[in-house]
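We modelled the chain as a single entity of 442 amino acids. Its sequence is:
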Amino acid sequence: MQEELSAQQVVDLNREYTLFSWSVQSQVNPIPIAKAKGAHFWDANGKQYLDFSSQLMNVNIGLQHPQVVKAIQDQAAELCFVHPGTATVPRGLLGKKLAQVTPDKLSKTFFVLGGAEANENAIKIARFYTGRHKVMARYRSYHGATHGAIALTGDYRRNAIEHTMPGVVHFLDPFCYRCPFGQESGSCQRECIAHVEEIIRYEGPDKIAAIIMEGVTGSNAIIVPPDDYWPRVREICNKYGILLISDEVMSGWGRTGKWFAVDNWNVEPDIITTAKGLTSGYVPLGAVVVSQDIADFFDDKYLYAGLTYNGHALACAAALATIAVYETDGLIDNAATLGNHLGAALEGIKERHRSVGDVRYIGLFSVIELVVNRETKEPFSPEVMAKVGQALRENGLFTYIRANDMGAMVFVVPPLCISQEQLDEGLSIIDQALSITDAMAK
């Protein structure tokens, strides 16, 4: 039986014996979480928090859904793990379900344990299939922290640990608020799309295996692309025989009001990588879902990819139960409906606060970008954003805060089970906290 520990003892134990990700360890101040349900969790002192980031933008169905918890318990009692070369009921049923909910041309799945593994294996498959080596990815991207996935990642976290996997070429993003091509909505000629083809020509079309992009850019600013962006990149890939990979680790599973973000533009990628909302984080699981053409290629060719936990029975059972919750609880429709309400509310926040430079949203995937000056778009410092984060936390709101050279942002990415009342409650807390940045805005 576990010993009873105070909230501070829990924090001290974790800080003394474990390392926290993406952190200066002496500055970590974790919340000692004791229990959770739906869109709320409670710390060891009994304080309630409203979850506005779905933990790490992955608990899409909400915390501790009884249907998924029971499925995990039932599968654990029957069969937790077997050799990855064997067949199990949950593995087969989940593969079939993924073929049904992903775009039509996708038909077969290679299972992994998370998003980084999914992206690394997608690149291996793309290189095997095409016989080419180079891969194109965007600068404002995050594809994971392992050796290959961090090479695909374009943001500042890559720089600290280079040299990484060779063969990755980065290109600029369709970021309308901070257009890298210096355009405004009235002058835009979709330079961001022409730029993709220009890079392809420089690098050699016959050398490029794949282009990988997040369906909607996630942790690097929630960048919703222009409506013609994904379709035209699909056309470019078709023109040069390049595979198109949609990283739906964060933007998939109803987050944008559709099963997957690319569904908003009726685009069929050659490969989808996913994790996070696949099980809503209840059990680690990721997936690489490939087209029938790619699947057929490996019918008589060796697949040089393998993991001890490929097709993990317990994880697959959790995913099946999670997908059932999306359907039975109407969560994807809820994300679409509340997404309209959220968008209007965020526009209102932008009007009321001079420190808000931009708001971006699609479904329940949104961000508030804060600036010192709307003309210069100078972001607030990490120190100022820490004060905003502290104010939110003190008032019972838990969410993801970013502050670096890429911008200063408050993310609004709640579980898809959230109610309108809960959504408005959280937005009200943010509304109040923005008085901190308004006082410093010029």
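As a brief sanity check on the tokenised model: The mean pLDDT is 97. The CA atoms of residues 99 and 107 lie 5 Å apart.
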